[in-house]
Amino acid sequence: MATLQAIYLSYLAHLFTVDSDLVNIKSILIIIQRSNGDVFLSSPLIEQLQDSFLDAKIDLLVNADTISIAKTLTKVNQIYEFSYKEKNKNRYKQERNIFKKIYRKYDLSINLTSSDRSVIYSLIASKKSISAIEKNKLKSWWKKILLKHYYFFDEDKHILINNLKSLDCLGIKPVKQVFPATFSQTSLDVVKNKLNDLKITKFVIFHPSAQYHYKVYNQDLREDLLSLLDSLNIPIVITGGGNDIDIKIKQSLPKLKNVYDFINETSIDEFIALSSISKAYIGMDTLNMHIAASQNKRIFAIFGPTNISMWSPWSNYLETAANKSNPIIEYNNITIFQAALPCVACGKEGCQNNGRISECLDNIDPKLIFKEIREWFLSYSL
Questions:
Q1: Overall number of domains in the chain
Q2: Residues contacting 220, CB < 8 A, separation 6+
Q3: Looking at the whole model, is its pTM more than 0.85?
């Protein structure tokens, strides 16, 4: 009932309110109810909105499990969070609290995700609302009626391009750059001291984990790849967080001369600092990959079923990303590895779409990955 009332109120406002002049926008809410990567890759939009509306305060509404990366974004005033845990406890209590906090508080709301909930938040927050919507007319018809502006979320386009579409609605020409993730001097000092204690100067990052099981290279292949990388005689810093996937990987890491285990030993801010002074990123397609790409690092990314067109690392040099699958994809400073299977990339959450096993990852030869890394290593003066 509360949701229907909210839609009705927004509809009335839509009918009887004239848009304010863009120069009068002093407050903006950006809604991103998806994953860590979506939140991080909203930074170009935030930067360009701030440049266009110099006096505006920009707030975010994100899912609770993305708060850590949201806090690293610059030019963000306040962050609201939606928790699925709280939703399961008392759905309407959380919704009411969020409605009270954002209701008509903003001159402009921009929703980057097309879910019904996030669209309603956008409508509630501002009389001037812009949102991504689905191409499916059965899902989006009411959104077209209520929203001031909308654009179609295109799964064949990179997430950065999708996120910047809202600028078109505002008459702002987008800049297709992912700005480097920021970090504190304290975090930089912490990681430098840690490296100094280990007598590490030049190093590469190997990030073997991901948020989901179906995006993780299996243990045997990972160990083979690490053994090969160890032969290059450059320190390999293994990174990861403290979740179950990361800890299981930590417990299974091989004892090798040039491998240094940093799993669960750095905060997200410290990882960003560590990545900024690394020579390359090697590992899975995950948030850390996008962070390294934003820093224009040499990227060697291992992809499973993930949609390449939407989620490949963005090249700031070329202002583009990969747009089709191939066993080896190379563009400027980025190399992507995929399996040579007809189903790649299916875009599912594993072979059974249950978040577990991706057979395509099991079909990427570590020797092939090593060959590409070794050629770069030998041609690049470290």
A1: 2
A2: none
A3: yes
